[in-house]
Amino acid sequence: MTQDEMPYERFMRCGAESLTDAELLAIIIRTGAPGRNAMEIGRRILTENGQHEPDLTVLYRTDLKSLTAISGIGEVKAVKILCLRELSKRLSMRQARPALCFREPSTIYAYYGEKLRHEPREHLILLLLNRRLTLQREVHCTIGTADTTLVPSREILSTALREGAAGFILLHNHPSGDPTPSQADIAVTQELDQASRLVHVMFHDHIIIGDTYISLRQMGYLGTGQGEAGEKQ
């Protein structure tokens, strides 16, 4: 590895901002393998899906098995990389937390988006709220396939009632990145809207997360809210 290819030395001379994604990853990897240095391994990880240019979002889609299948990446290095990914998610959520307002779908997306939008399967989260619209409890209800998740309407309402919640928000992701609601999403939303009124629990919103987000209340599918799909902030 030449002087220009030594990420650690470049970091010390110029700072982290001067390094490419592959160089930053090479510092985490630290050592190479026979016939392949840490930089080459870093580039190999970031082109895992066959793209020509390194793509940092690959780290959101990889797992322990995929990483350890790469020559030069053992279990210890793979665990470090996955911990780095988790730290990035937590940092994003921590930064978005002060602005989180359950009346504003854009702030909900800013907080939960990084956590959910890269997931390979659909996840459903139930946000239970008190009368002041602050979070009482976060419940992870189901995990589905790549394109569908079962939304247990009765379980959602019974959970809200059991916890004494004044209202709730449904939150789920579309792994495709397209947050456009399916007919099933719309049907369940309208069913829950009607049922929640009968038991006097406020169904505030159903937010779908992808590369952007959509609020079904803003789209007019529950309550009286009207609006358009939100854009990533």
Short description:
This protein is an alpha+beta fold. The protein is built from 9 helices and 5 strands.
User: What share of the residues lie within helices?
Assistant: 40-55%
Tell me the number of helical segments per DSSP (H or I, 4 or more residues long). Answer: 9
The geometry reads as: elongated
Give the low-pLDDT segments. Answer: 225-233
- Named CATH topology of the largest domain: Cytidine Deaminase, domain 2
Mean pLDDT, rounded to whole units?
Answer: 88
**Major β-sheet annotation:** 5 strands, mixed
Roughly how many Å apart are the termini?
A: 40 Å
Strand order of the largest sheet: 2-1-3-4-5
Number of strands: 5
Going by CATH, the homologous superfamily of the largest domain would be Cytidine Deaminase, domain 2
| Strand fraction | 5-15%
Indicate the multimeric state.
single chain
Radius of gyration: 21 Å
Secondary-structure element sequence?
HHHHHHHEEHEHEE
Summary tags:
elongated, 15% strand, alpha+beta, Cytidine Deaminase, domain 2, 9 helices, five-stranded mixed β-sheet, 233 residues, 5 strands, 2 domains
Describe the model.
With 233 residues, the chain is an alpha+beta fold. The chain folds into two domains: 3-92; 100-215, Cytidine Deaminase, domain 2. The protein is 41% helix and 15% strand. The chain is built from nine helices and five strands. The protein has helices at residues 7-14, 21-29, 38-46, 58-61, 64-68, 75-96, 105-116, 153-162, 183-198, and strands spanning 123-129, 135-143, 167-173, 202-209, 213-215. It has a five-stranded mixed β-sheet, sandwiched between helices. Strand 1 and strand 2 form a beta hairpin. Helix 2 crosses helix 3 (38-46). The longest helix is centred in the middle third of the chain and has 22 residues, at 75-96. The two termini are 40 Å apart.
